[in-house]
Amino acid sequence: MNEFLSVSEEVVESLKSKKPVVALESTIISHGMPYPQNVETALGVEKVIRDEGAIPATCAIINGKLKVGLSADEIEYLGQAKDVIKCSRRDIPYVVSKRLNGATTVAGTMILASMAGIEVFVTGGIGGVHYGAEHSFDISADLTELARTNVTVVCAGAKAILDIEKTLEYLETMGVPVIAFGQDEFPAFYTRNSRFKAPYRMDTPEEIASFIKAKRILGLYGGMVIGNPVPAEYEADEAAINEAISEALKDADQKMIKGKEVTPYLLARVAELTDGESLETNMALVKNNAVLGAKIAKVL
Length: 300
Ligand code: PSU
Ligand code: MN
What we know:
By secondary structure, the protein is α/β, with parallel strands linked by helices. The protein has 13 helices and 11 strands. The protein has one domain: Indigoidine synthase domain (Indigoidine synthase fold, 3-Layer(aba) Sandwich), CATH 3.40.1790. Strands 1, 2, 3, 4, 5, 6, 7, 8, 9, 10 and 11 form an 11-stranded mixed β-sheet that branches. It is globular and about 50 Å long. The protein starts with a strand and ends with a helix. It binds pseudouridine-5'-monophosphate (PSU) and manganese (II) ion (MN).
C-alpha cells in the first residue's frame, strides 16, 4: 500500500474475504478502441466477469491516484477524454506527480494489480517485439514487466502487427512462462493460430491455477502469459487482416510514427482498413478471455 494507491471498497472487501478478483486494463479503452465501442466493451467485460462469479477491477490513473476498480462513470470518462496519457512503467510517476489522468497498458496494469494484491489480469492482446526491432529497438515494456511482476495475463496472443516469433523468443529469454489454452500454437489475436508453437499447452483452468500456485510457492517472481484463442465463429479473415496489417505498417513507417505512438496508430489503422470488422473480433475475444480469467481466479 502507498499514499497514491486507491483500491475500490468492493475490491478491498473481495480480496480480504478471498473472493476471486480479475484486473482489467484501460489503454485498450483510451488508445486501443474507438468510442463508443471501447466503453461498451469495457463495461461488457466487467459484466462477463461478474456473471462468472468474480469481481472486476479496471485499473487507471485518475487525478494522479492509482485506481484499482473504476466506476462506470470513470470508464465512460476514459473512453471519451482526449487528455489521457498512455501509461507504462516509466510514465506512472510522471502522471502521479502531476496529478494527471492516465490509462494503464498491460505493463502499467500489472503494476497496479500487484500493488493491490490481484493475481489475474484479463486483456485483449499484449505488446511485443515490433518488426524491425533489430534497428528500432521497439520492444514493448509489457515484456519486461512480465519478467518482473507477479501477475498472470490472459490474452488472445499477440497481434500480427508484431513479430510473434521474436516476441516468444524474448519472453523465453526473460523467463516468462507462456501457455496456450486448448491448443498447441500461440494464438495470433484476430486468428486462432500464429504458426508458432507455445512452450506449454493447458486445457483447463485448474491446470493453469496449479501452475500459478507452484510458481508462487517456489518464489519464482514474474508474470506469465496465457494465450486464449479467439472463438472460431469470431475469427477474422486471415488474408484480409494480413493485408490491412501490412498496409498499416507501411503507413506508420512513412509517417515516421515512433515510440509509444506506434501501437495505438497501428491498432486504429487496422480497424479503419478492415471497416471495423477487426473491432468486432476484438470485442468478442476480450469477453472470451474474461470468462477464462474469471475461472482461473475462482480456482486460485
Ligand atoms: N495490443 C492490442 N490492443 C491494445 C494494446 C496492445 O491488441 O489495446 C495496448 C495494451 O495496453 C498494451 C499496449 O499493453 O497497447 C502496448 O503498447 P506498447 O507497444 O507501446 O508497449
Ligand atoms: Mn514500443
